[in-house]
Each structure stands twice: as structure tokens, then as C-alpha cells.
Amino acid sequence: MTHQTPNESDEIGLCFISDSRDFPMIYNFSMARMRKACPKGPRILEEEVGRNIRLDGMDPFGEDESVAFQLIRNMLNGENNVIRGIKVPISTRMLFYMSELFIWLGNIASIKLFVPRNTISGLIDGIIHKAGSLNRVPEWPLLAIVAQRCEIPGFTKQCRDVLGLFCSSGDKEVPEKLRGRLSVREWDLVKSLELMCEEVHTIRRSYMERIFEALRILCFQPTPQKFQNAMTDIDRDELNLMDTERSAMLLGMWPCSKCEGIPTGDLQRELMQMVPWFTSPGSYLGSVEVLLNLLRQAEVNIRVHKDGPDCNQLRHFCKFLLQKVTSEANIS
Fold first, then answer.
1. What pLDDT, on a 0 to 100 scale, did the predictor assign at position 93?
2. Which of 43, 102, 135, 145 could share a disulfide with 108, CB 3.0–4.6 Å?
3. Contact at 8 Å (CB) between 310 and 262?
4. Is 154 left (phi over 0), alpha (psi -120 to 50) or beta?
5. Contact (CB, 8 A) for 39 and 33
6. CA–CA separation, 113 vs 128, rounded Å?
7. Mind listing the pLDDT tens digit for each residue in 233-256?
8. Sign of CA dihedral 137, 141, 146, 148
9. Angle, nearest 10°, between helix axes 198-220 and 264-274?
């Protein structure tokens, strides 16, 4: 069965079905481009025309899938603006389904003549920029699949930076709590990427060392008047002001004009109760995410239950960490 228009005689309509409909959805493809760019193009045109095509995990009637088909069509047609005609924001699933279509067409490498690598990289960057950070992107592990299929350099490192926030000491696989609404097949694809490695645990330990170092400074120099001295008393070689992440972690506790000091005894007792590892970060085996929740609870206890100051350095510090990881950011 072919579906052509007088102005698009090179196009052919292929029928895609799903379990939710009794009739197919038809998407048009350029036959010349499919033959030239797609390894499976000739076979698809020979064997699938007139048949109902089912793609695992995709509903051809879905909005995300529809956009994915449009992206593929624009790319195969050599459009300079691959999102031309798309009226909705590009989402993680749209790019994932686009990569699924690449696989169906044969091999993404063969389409690079029509799809510059920085095109897809730019779409991924746009999604992350809108969310604020990778870990805040709904279903962000799917982007790891897209990036690896498209051979986008550097993205695996970004994923491992995020995993360093959510993994525990003994984790050997991507933590299950990052799965969200991913299907079994999608989650298996994520786990097959081998994102978890020693580098992730090194990143986690680095976060922990900076967090606990900042807590020790806060614990022994809790007032705004003494906080600056706590900073200057640190060996400059040890602090290394060029280490922007470490410096930012410490400066994240810098008091505002409304900050009041936390009584040293109250702070130490609360930390010992909620975060008993604060004097020995190596003994803490959990994740940065869990640690943040404990610190936030300690801050609330000090502020509410013990008539502590409404604004204090620990609250500043928790807000700073919240920018990196929140309880909701990793769940779709």
C-alpha cells in the first residue's frame, strides 16, 4: 500500500500499529533518502510496504512518537532546522524514540551525512538547559542511551557526575530509584550502558569529603563573626582556590545579612544524632541525596524544635546542595 501526493511522488506511506488502536497510523518517508541513507531502507521498502509495522515500546499515535517521526523525516530530508514544524518543546522521550527509529532504519552511523552530531547534541543541551541541570530532567537516563547511540562525546561523564549524587558506597549498577517510569526494556538498556564504574564512586567520595569538611568548619565556627576566620585559617594550599567545586561547597555556607549563629552545642548534638558520620565521612555508606535529606531534617529540628534562628549557615548549605540534588529531581 503506497500513499503519495502529486507534489511528493518520492514519498511513501508506511503503516505503524499499536495495541491501543484497531487501525494503523501512516507516516510518510522519502524512498530515495531511505535507500541512500539507511542500511535497512531497501529491505523496508521491499518487505514492509502495505504491512502493519510494530515497533517495540512505541505507540505511533503518541505525541512523543509523532514528534520523533517528524524529527527523522526532517533529518532524512536534509533540513537545516530539524525541529521545523514541531510546535511542542523537545522532550527526553522524543529523542529516545528518535534513536529507536534510527535503530529500526539500520544504523545511526549511516545517517551522519544527514544528521551532524552537534544537531542531536544541541537538542540534548536544550533539554538540560531548560531543566537547569541533568539530574532535573525527567527520565534523564534515556538521554544517556541517545547520547551513546549518537556517539556524543563527554555525555557519559555528565551522567556519571549525576550518579555520584545518587549512588551508595556498594552500588554496582545504576540505582533502581533512578528508574522512574522507564519500562523494563528501557531500564535494561540503561543498565547495559555500563555507566556505573569506579569513577562514579570517586565522584561520590569527592562530594562526601567536601560536604563533611564544610560541616566540620560550620560545626566549630558557627557564627557569622567567626566564619570568615574559619575560612582564612584553612591552609591555602589545602583549600586550593582554583578548585572551584570545593570552594563553592564551602562558600555555600557563607552567611547572609540576616543570619544568626547556631549555638555550638545545639549544632553538634543535632549533627551527631542525624548525621553521626560527620567527623568521619569514610564511614558513611549512603548517597549524597540521603545525606542531604538528613541535613535538612537537622536544620529543621534546630530552627523549629529548639527555637533556633530562622536563617543560619546550615540552611544556606542545604539550599546550595539542593541545587545539585533534590528528592524529586530524579523521578519522572
1. 97
2. 102
3. no
4. left
5. no
6. 26
7. 555 445 454 455 666 666 666 667
8. positive
9. 150
